[in-house]
Write a structure and sequence with these properties.
This is DNA-directed DNA polymerase. GO terms for molecular function: DNA binding; DNA-directed DNA polymerase activity. Belongs to the DNA polymerase HolA subunit family. By secondary structure, this protein is of the alpha/beta class. The chain contains 16 helices and five strands. Strands 2-3-4-1-5 form a five-stranded parallel β-sheet, with helices on both faces. Helix 5 links the parallel strand 3 and strand 4. It is elongated.
């Protein structure tokens, strides 16, 4: 039987021990591995592997011994409880060695969990699981996690009290990180919140989220937009040490100041305008950028965008001989000074 995405989420959390097996396939090996870990843990519990109720098989094991999967399905453990025979990295070429073992499955045998890469609809392996009355097939795709998936991951991590702003930040974070990093970040947040009864806030997420190159450039742009000229040299030095391309800083600066200009130009004011920009600005960054837009005003922000446009043309010019890093640093100083000027 084929599980829909919605039904699959529920099944991964509460699998049915009496089923013959489950096929999990998809192009992203990390996403497939995370779902496989979840369903096996739910089936055999935290001590299942210790009690020898889990048998792991690689595709190469079946090539050497075609009966290895059948033996794992029929083998009995000294300990009571559900058993799992897990076959990793199955391929279409192995279908003739996998399908007979499943056809011979009976009540009391180990449940078979098979993971595979991307499988075509015509795949024998996929068609067998989708057509089996007592087995399931689930396709894992590269789409960003849904809100339901994020909420399920939060519950698994022990995080239940979450503010709406924090949830918005987590949705954004789930789209920026790969699935493994996102899960590790949730675990880090859950440890961070031990003993803290307050709802999860955007500040908590910011304290635990991985520091990326984009975040480092954001630090520079906040320093510039808030005219903290004394901090510019040290921040620029840190970015150079990280090997961040000057052109990347210019592009990020254009994006930041265009957002400020859109907010400052809104008839309802910067605090209203910042809520209309796309992509949306969430969490503490939203209030901070609204304050920056209000401080600058639309006219000075036009001048800032002209400065950044000139910088972009110089960086792209084949006739330019000045070092790119110095050009960017001078432009950032001019922008910071511009905010201090009266208009």
């Amino acid at each position: 039987m084929k599980l829909t995405t919605r039904d699959a989420l529920r099944y991964f959390a509460r699998p049915e021990p009496e089923r013959a097996g489950l096929l999990i396939y998809g192009g992203d090996a990390m996403r497939v591995a995370l779902r496989r870990q979840e369903v096996i843990a739910a089936l055999i519990g935290p001590k299942g592997e210790e009690e020898m109720r889990l048998t792991r098989l690689q595709a190469s094991d079946l090539r050497k011994d075609p009966a290895a999967l059948s033996d794992a399905i029929k083998a009995q453990s000294f300990f009571p409880g559900p058993r799992v025979a897990f076959l990793e990295e199955a391929t279409e070429q192995l279908a003739p060695k996998i399908l007979p073992a499943l056809q011979d499955w009976g009540p009391g045998d180990a449940q078979v969990i098979v993971t595979a890469g991307q499988l075509k609809p015509t795949s024998k392996l996929r068609k067998f699981f989708e057509g089996h009355r007592n087995a399931y097939a689930v396709g894992i795709y590269d789409d960003p996690p849904s809100r339901e998936e994020i909420e399920a991951s939060l519950r698994t991590a022990g995080l239940n009290d979450i503010s709406s702003d924090a949830m918005a930040d987590l949705v954004g974070l789930s789209r920026a990180l790969d699935p493994g990093d996102f899960r590790q970040t949730l675990e880090k947040i859950s440890l961070y919140k031990i003993g803290d009864e307050a709802p999860l806030s955007p500040e908590d997420i910011a304290a635990c989220a991985p520091v990326s190159t984009e975040a480092a450039v954001d630090d520079l742009l906040h320093v510039v937009a808030e005219a903290r000229i004394g901090e510019l040299a040290s921040v620029m030095s840190r970015l150079r040490a990280q090997g961040i391309n000057p052109t990347s800083i210019c592009i990020a600066g254009m994006r930041h100041f265009k957002t400020l200009y859109a907010a400052a130009s809104d008839p309802g004011g910067a605090s209203v305008g910042i809520g209309k920009v796309r992509p949306p600005v969430n969490g503490p960054r939203r209030n901070r950028m609204a304050q920056q837009a209000s401080s600058w005003g639309a006219f000075k922000l036009q001048d800032a965008l002209e400065t950044l446009t000139d910088l972009d043309l110089k960086l792209r010019s084949a006739a330019q001989t000045a070092p790119a890093a110095e050009l960017v640093e001078r432009a950032m100083i001019r922008l910071a000074m511009l905010n201090r000027e009266r208009r």
